[in-house]
Fold this sequence. Notes:
Elements: E1 5-11, H1 18-29, E2 35-41, H2 46-53, E3 57-60, H3 70-82, E4 86-90, H4 92-102, E5 108-113, H5 117-120, H6 124-137, E6 143-146, H7 149-157, E7 165-167, H8 183-193, E8 201-206, H9 215-228, E9 234-239, H10 245-254, E10 261-265, H11 270-274, E11 279-282, H12 291-298, E12 303-306, E13 322-324, H13 329-341, H14 343-360, H15 363-378
Parallel strand pairs: 1-2, 1-4, 2-3, 4-5, 5-6, 6-7, 8-9, 8-11, 9-10, 11-12, 12-13
Amino acid sequence: MKSKLRVLHVIGGGEFGGAEQHILNLLKAFPADEVEATVVCFYDSVFANQLREAGIKVVTLNQFGRFDLRLLRALKHVIAQCNPDIVHTHGIKANFFARLAAKNIAPILLTTVHSNLRYDYVHPLAYLIVYWMERLTRRYNRHYIAISAAISEILQQNGIPREQISLIYNGIDLKPFRHTGQRAGDRARLLADWGLPANAFVFGTAARFVPVKGLSYLIEGFAKFIAADKGGAYRLVLVGDGSERDKLEALVDSLGLRELVHFTGFRQDVPVCLHAFDAFIHSSIYEGMGYTIVEAMASELPVAATSVGGVVELVVPDQTGLLMPPGSPEAIASAMHTLARDPQLRDRLVEQALKQVEGSFTIEQMASKTLALYRTLLQPV
Length: 381
């Protein structure tokens, strides 16, 4: 093996979601004297800039179309130049092209599975295409990292042997979320910036605005909560952006909630935004794990979340948060009512959730387990 372990991560990188945050956290946590990491992005976007700012080497291949086969040749060239010990892929497009490009070059191909394809691609034809893109190239892949037990079970149901799967929970850098002493000042400033009353009880979320996040159910649930709890200064804040934004704003207008729901747009200061919230609501239809739930818990916010995928590994009912069935505005309204009316419950949930996050979901644990897996995979068979 070379003096430093060389790892090439490959990802689409056209948005900044959980997979992108995962890579950024992971590479920043690796010991610089042990790992030499490069990231290939198919788009030169926010994520690529974040990597550059962190001092991480990034190669962008954004000059090619979405499924331009010249991308395969370019990626093969990058892999040959980097000469990595491990090619580590994230996402269907990256998996497909990197496995084909690296099959006779890189010794080890590893994939982290962040989500369930069934919920990422809701159109039947799109799902069929990506399903076969994944299945046809799996034979080139050596090992899989599942970010939750739920994802591990899905992989096994799809025919991947248990011994080829490692469970490594996503970890986060807790430090940006532990500045609780700044909460009052951040909250006052943001509420003023957003035009919200200083005495508001703020329900909030942070997500990509895509169907799987279930944000329409969140808005409808808030509408039901407001209808049943008139008179309170309640507000809903949605941090993020995406393809569904226009649809969600139209829903807000149709429900007469324009004065009560605020869209912040994409923000890079999510830890600060969380300081403006009184409770965090997670409404996904499916979630591999729930990165933003961990962030909210680390920021000492009480959480209500849908009981889907890996979320049930994070949220212990009435101990570390409230669980709700997915796709139910009624359940969201009920959880909002419970959190708004019971400060003792909020305090208890916050205390237990913080203990869990600090014990199991740190970036240091994720990086240590991933590096140990790299070394195991590189041992002679």
